[in-house]
Structure formats: C-alpha cells, structure tokens
Amino acid sequence: MKKTIAAVALLLLAAVPGLAGRYDSPDFLTGHLVSGGPPKDGIPALTNPQFVPPSGVSYVAWDDLVIGVYINGVAKAYPENLGWWHEIINDEIGGQFISVTFCPLTGTAMVFAATDTDGSQIQFGVSGLLINSNLVMFDRSDGETLFPQMIYTAINGDSVGDRLELLPAVETTWAMWKKLHPDTRVAAAGTGWDYYEGKRTPYPYERYTEYPYISFSRDYRTSNEYLLFLPSTNGGELDSRYAVKDVVLGICREGETRAYPFADMPDGAVINDRIGDQSLVVVFDADSHTAIPYSSDVGGDPLNFYAVESEGSLLLEFMDIETGSRWNMLGEAIAGPLAGERLVQMPAYNAMWFAWAAYWPETSIWKTGAGIIDPPPPVTAIAELGEAVPDRFALQQNIPNPFNPQTHIRYQLPHSGQVSLSVFNAAGQQVRILVDEYQNAGSYLQTWDGRDQRGIPAASGTYFYRLELPASGLSESRAMSLVR
Fold this sequence. Notes:
By secondary structure, the protein is mainly beta.
C-alpha cells in the first residue's frame, strides 16, 4: 500500500489508551471482522462527483443531515442521503484530496486527508466488512489494506498501524450548513460513478430520498431495539450508561477519549474543557444537531467563553472573559479586541453511543454542566450608574475551576474600604496577593494567572483564596484547583 500523507506508523495499541491491552495483538481486530452482507464494492463508493449550488438540489430536505467541509475558502456539503447508499465519497476540495465517509449503522460521519506523498488521490472503497457494526474501508491502491472507520488505522498487511489523518468537519442540518456557508456547493446525486463505468448503473435520483434502514416501522436511527450487529470487541455487551442510539460527540486527543452526549448538553451550550494538553470549547445547537469543538487557544493563551444572545444571522454567539471579544459559531471573532481572529476547529466525530463505547470503553464522559460559565459581572470599581450597589459581601466561585493557566474571581463589596484578596496553598502559606487597596462599593472581577508573588508558575494542587474587608470584620474563603 502507498503511504498516506498522514501515516505515522504507530501501532494501534499506542494510538489511544482505550486500545492498549485489548488490541495488543495484530490479529485481534481482524479476528472481529464480520460480513455486513454486501461483497466488496457491493455498496458502491463515489469518486469525484459533480457539485451544484443549493438551488440545484431537491433530494435533500431542510432538516436532513449533511457532512460539511470547509478547506482553503471552499465549502462543500455531502448529504448523508448519499452516505446511506454509498458510505464513501472520494473527492477534492480547496486543492486537497479527501475521503468523506459515513457509516449508517454507527451514525459516524468522518472525513480523512487523501493526498498521497506523490500528490495523487488516495481512493477508498467499501469492503462489505464490519467491526462493532462500523464500516471497514479498503485502500484501492492494493485492494487489500483495511481501515475500520472509527479508528482509521490499518489493521492488516504491511501497513498495520498506519493512521489516516482525521480532518475537521461539521455534521449539521442542510438548513444550518447553508446559513453557515451560503456559498456552499453540494454533491449532486447520480454522479461520481466513473469507477463502475460499464459495470454498475447509477441509482435513480429518487433513491436518495429513501432511508434504507427501516424495518417494521422501526427507524434504525432512533430505535434502541433495532440493531443489525452487536459490537464484538467487548463480547457483545452494550454499555448501559446511555441509550444505544444516543448520539455523542467524540474526541480523541493526546491519549484521552471523551464523549459529549447530545442528551446532556443544553441547547445553546458553550462548554469550556481540557483534554490532554489541549484547551477547547464545544458549541452545541440541539435543533440542527450541531456540535463543534474548537481549540480555545489564541496567540498561545487559552480563552474562556460564555454564551450570549446572538446579534447576527447565526444562532450561537459567545464572548471570551479575557478580552470581551464576541464570537460566532464558526469560531470567528466578529467584534472586540480580537476581531478577525478565528478559532481552529478540532478533528472529532459524532457516533451512536453503543459504537463509541464499544471502541472506547475507557472513555471519559463530559459531566453535565461542567465548563459552562455565566457572564461575568461588569469589571468596574463602582456599580454602574443607576445600578444598585451590592447589598451584601460576597465571594463567588472562581471560573473556570479546575483551571490552567488562569482563572477569574468575582466578588461584591456592599460599601467602600480597604480590601485584601490573597491566594494560599493547602499548608496555609500565602502564595499571591491579588488585591491590597482601597476600593469603592461595587462588583469586581480579578484574574489569577496561576503564578506566585515572584512570577513563578505554581504547582498543581488545591489552593484557597480569601477576601477580607478588615474594617467591617468581613471575610470569606473558597477553594480552587490548579491542574498543570
């Protein structure tokens, strides 16, 4: 097999800890291959289909899901209606070759880099085999090398352990993708069959409006009782923490896997989180089935975000605490000091819970409410004109918490006086003086950058911060966690 541009020659067990100890034999996954019914190429992959503007497509309803890809200023939509019948679309976008893949049995829409080292197009086909109900692709260059979609790693032949490069994509409704990218093009049905010229007759246009996995009025996508194949790598057991067909956003990063269940994320959620060495933010719109993870690092520093009411054409907007810049759900800073900046989208994919849990049984799960922060109070020395002066002394929980490298502390003063705000370690030793001055009554926001009084980064651990208004005998303390 020719090497893919993203092949890193890692053994499968080294890729993600969920595989270590379970998939430590090259024969483990090949031993779990099962036939899905159709033979190799029995489900015909498409290659380089034609594209038309949104007005030229009638086989996609406004609430049908599409796989949206944006590369080098070019936006394309690959309707899952095509994925139901073809599962793989080999294509080119923005000067790059890609493979758009969709497994109807696991609900996984994934896009991979497909430019070979010599600049040619790597093409994949549908093998007709499954592992954990999931699509297994084969490389057309040798006709033999197999790649299970959800782990995108070669499991046989000379290329065992080579991994494809997972690219960022957006799974969302057709209506939402058109809002995000009004200039998008969309794959036209009945095109891209050149590989089968003279061998296969293209499907009629109408077929792409017919979902194939309905049995006795049960829709495979929503019926938890309707499974065609049980997952095999975990002995056929179904993880009962969530319903079989519940959808999760899954992220693999730096030796960790994490699932964000759609059932738990509030509509309009803006979630601050950290996986491995990566700070990230996940934005979620329930109606359009859209969950997008972005790196929250801008200029080398992580930002913390909170949801705000949208002022533009897109449903979701959010602001960062650090600069007060406003962002939209495309990850674009549209106002404020960072206007013009853009967050980097992280590679991830949605999956039905049973399949994600089968491949990643040691996955962590986002804890409901974690990382969702409220808008901070005005950063003013005195309450805004016309706004009531706080009626009580209050020290709020820091946000975010746990944190790295910085966090924000809010407090309220009912009257003026000398104020002290300090950070202490678990032994009671003072680490940093944040405030030691006279302040007027009002609401305040103070940042701690995780450094001690000398400017040296503090170690991971539990710290305490104490607010005092000595003249009034008022004081309050709270705990926080620094995680390096």
